[in-house]
Specification:
Blueprint lengths: L2 H27 L15 H11 L3 H13 L9 H7 L9 H13 L13
Length: about 120
């Protein structure tokens, strides 16, 4: 295998691992309260993603706002004040900013409306 193909292969494997890590972080934490399509103890992922996506359609804006807000949730900076009244304010979580960026990126890229579907279609 030439060096060029080896580098491409290693980059591909690394991107799969990063995706798996983000998926594990999301599914091991966020899904506890935020079910994919059903609102139970918090808004569903589909519900909050739709609202945040309409406010921040550019990936970098979506990820920055969501990761910043989750790091320090406040009612006055929320886009979902009705949800706060219904479910209460999201608690502070002990995640560092990089972890929240990974999770927010995963949320942006994932189509939670389709089982087995991976990427959000614009």
């Amino acid at each position: 295998m030439s060096n060029k193909y080896l580098i491409l292969f290693l980059l591909f494997i690394q991107s799969l691992q990063a995706s798996d890590t983000s998926s594990l972080l999301f599914n091991g934490n966020c899904i506890t309260c935020h079910k994919e399509t059903k609102s139970v103890s918090a808004p569903s992922v589909v519900e909050f993603k739709k609202i945040y996506f309409s406010a921040f359609s550019k990936k970098e804006d979506f990820v920055e706002y969501m990761s910043t807000w989750v790091q320090n949730p406040k009612e006055e900076t929320s886009l979902m004040r009705d949800a706060i009244k219904k479910y209460s304010l999201m608690p502070h979580l002990c995640f560092d900013k990089e972890t929240l960026i990974d999770i927010s990126t995963y949320i942006y890229e994932t189509d939670f409306t389709r089982r087995g579907g991976r990427y959000w279609s614009k």
